[in-house]
Structure formats: C-alpha cells, structure tokens
Amino acid sequence: MEISVLRPDGTDTGRKVELQDSIFAITPNDHAIYLDVKQFLANQRQGTHKSKERAEISGSTKKIKKQKGTGTARAGSIKSPVFRGGGRVFGPEPRDYGFKVNKKVKSLARKSSLSYKATEGKIIVVEDFSLESPKTKELLKVLKSLSVDGKKVLAISSEKNENLYLSSRNLQKSKVADISGLNTYDVLNADSLILFEGSLAKIENLFA
Description:
Helix 5 (162-168) links the parallel strand 4 (153-157) and strand 5 (174-178). 32% of the residues lie in helices and 15% in strands. The chain is of the alpha/beta class. The protein starts with a strand and ends with a helix. Helix 2 (30-43) packs across helix 3 and helix 4 crosses helix 5.
C-alpha cells in the first residue's frame, strides 16, 4: 500500500512510502485486540482499594449483651458486620489487576489495529519535523494544516521529542509518543494516526 508523504504545512512532498502489507494489510484479529486492550486498561488500575474487616475496626471486644434470653439474635462484638460501624464482610483488598498476554498475541493485536486504520484511510504520513520550543500554538497550526484539528489524534515520532510531547500535553484530544509508546488501545482510540516518515522503518523492525 502506497501513501503520500506530507509536509507539516499539509502540502504534498511528491514522495510516497510503501506501507508493508504484513503490518498494515493483515486480516485483523479481534480477539487478540480484545486481550491486548483489556491488559492495557487493567494495568492502568491502581488496585489500592481497601476496606476494614472486623479484626481491623477500632472498638471494644466486650460482649454487648448476654447470650440468651434477650429475644434477639446473639451478638459477641460491636465490631460485627451486622452492626452499623462494624467491619465489612469480604471487602476489597489491594491487588494487582495485571495479567499476562503472550508477545505474539500483543504483536498481532497491534498489527491488527494498524491494519484497521490503514483500511479506514486514517493514516497520515508526515516528514520528520521538530519544534524549536514547546508551543501548543505551533502544534495546533500543524494539526490544522493536516485537517485533523479537533479530532482525537495519535502522532508516532521516530524518537523521543521533548518539545513535541510538551506541546501536546495540554491538548485533550492529541497525544504524541515515540515507537515505545505504540499500543493497541491508543491506536484504535484515535480518529487519525499520524506517522512520522522516520518512524516507519522502526515500526517495520518492531514487527519483524
């Protein structure tokens, strides 16, 4: 699949690049995508939730009434879960929600997400560029030139670009990442995927 390379101002450079069919034109595997996205979202959870059980509640352990003859149920402690202010039964405990997904499945999921974007015509290839200083206004100007302003955008640069990252940090719908930040969730969540020309070779190496 061939695609034109654009300049940051939106004009055509006259060059075209080849998107490898083995990465951008495979038959997407929806189950692999499901597993990879599920793992990504699970890893975002802090898992720090906690409630106190009866052994952790502050309170007297004195038996609050005699065992028999009251006409009500027996009770041994004010910390019992049946009383207001008592401990909670089977409450949440701190835990790690992460789980394992095989490398080949994750790779298939990412290729599937890229193939979806390529099929939908939502991939834009831009020649490599940088900003002299972190300025959101300059990045907005580029997005407007590429007709993707106001849309959810994921831009993948060939290497870490601090100025681009800082410029995008204040934009709610735009995200800039390098190859190491390429993941299935962000690709599918974006309306448009902007690939820097230099990142294509690294993407090919990543999935080789």
